[in-house]
Structure formats: structure tokens, C-alpha cells
Fold this sequence. Notes:
The chain is an all-alpha fold.
Amino acid sequence: MSGEETKAEVFTITEETEVRHMSKKSCIFEKFVQPCLAELFGTSLFVFVGCASVVGNAGTVGVIQPAVAHGLALGVLIMVFGQISGGHFNPAVSLMAYLCGGMELPLLVPYIMVQMVGGMAGAGLTKAIYPDSVYAASLGGAFGVTANTQAETTLAEVIMTMFLTIVVCMGAINSKTSSPWAPFCIGLTVTANILAGATISGACMNPARAFGPAVVANHWSHHWIYWVGPICGALLTSSFIRLLFGDQKTRILLK
Length: 255
């Protein structure tokens, strides 16, 4: 009896150990690996649709096609991947989310890195499907700045990114105002910003969206604007949320 009990106990302990080991591996995958894969895949698709809409719109007047394409793609991708990674697909949004308590610090740098890679992948897919002449005519969806308008372009990117990140934070992160309509609202915000500011700065609001086509098309004219503007917009949003608009858990003053 004693030997049989010992064997049974060993088997039980081994089985429990294996279950705990598998559970730990699954937890690591779902907490770190899967969110990064979602950000990589989602950013690739978003940048592909965005760049393709710009390249396909080359030679026509108006920004309706790129505005609608960017907004619809982002809203759908947030709906699909939001429960896995938060559906950022944008380094400025990831920075704002961390500063406002919407994500953990260990994920911030990996998110930004995979978003950059996703931007290059999406831009590369765009180049692969369009003829070289059509692709080159629109710089592959990369952003260009008119001479002597760097200040205005940077300010436009700050304002539009601030608008976007406020909607993201208040609609998806802040517990007091979060809504299941957040993906729809975020997509509409991107559409509205492009309609309003595309003729000024291109309405990027996303360093990954700027970086991908800049690498593939080798177009770096005033590229710094599309990092400085969105990051400043994200920092402004974080300040407003932490000081004024956040819920009791998020605010650092007047709790």
C-alpha cells in the first residue's frame, strides 16, 4: 500500500508541476508575446492601408480617400486586436497609455520596436503591389513638408495628435469615461484630423506611419517633425489627463 501511495503521490505532484509550468508559459505568452505580435500585425495592416490609399489617390484632388481609409482601418483593427494589445499601433499612443496608467513599462519599448517594424512591413507591401512610377509619384505614402513651414507643420501634428490621444485615453483607458464605442470614435478622429490637416502636415499623428514609408521610399525630408509633433501631443494629453480630466485613480491632484 505504501509503495502504491508513494507512486500515486509522485504522479500527482509531477502532474501539478507540469500544469503550473504550462500555465506559466501560457501567461508569459499572453502577457508579453501575444500583445507584441498583435501590435506588429496590426501596425503592418494599418500602414499598408494608409500608404496604399495615398499612393492610389495620387494625381487626384482631395483627401477623402486617405482620410476614410485610415479611419476605417484603424477602427476595425482596434476592434480586432484591442482586447489583446490595446490596439495602439502608434508609438505616441503607447507613450500616452503608459504615462496615463494604461499599460506596463516592460511593454513600452517592445511595443515601439514592433510598431516600427510593422510600419516598414506595411510600407514594403505597398511598394510590392504598385508600379514603380505610381509609387514614386506619391513618395510611397511618405510625408513631405513644404519649404519654410516646419513650425506650422509641427504645431499641426502636436494639435492633431493631442486630439487623437485624448480620444484614445478618455474612450478606452480612463475608467470614468471608457466606452465600447471607443474604436469607432478613434477611427472617426483620425478621419477628421486627416480631413482637417492633410494639406498642412499630411496629418500623420503616428511616428510608425511616417517611419515605415520613409525607410522604404528613402524619403527623410524633415522626418523629425513626425516624431517631435506626435510625442509632444502625447505628452500634452498625459498632462491634461493626470492633472484635470482623469478619474480618481489617474489624477495626481485633487483626488
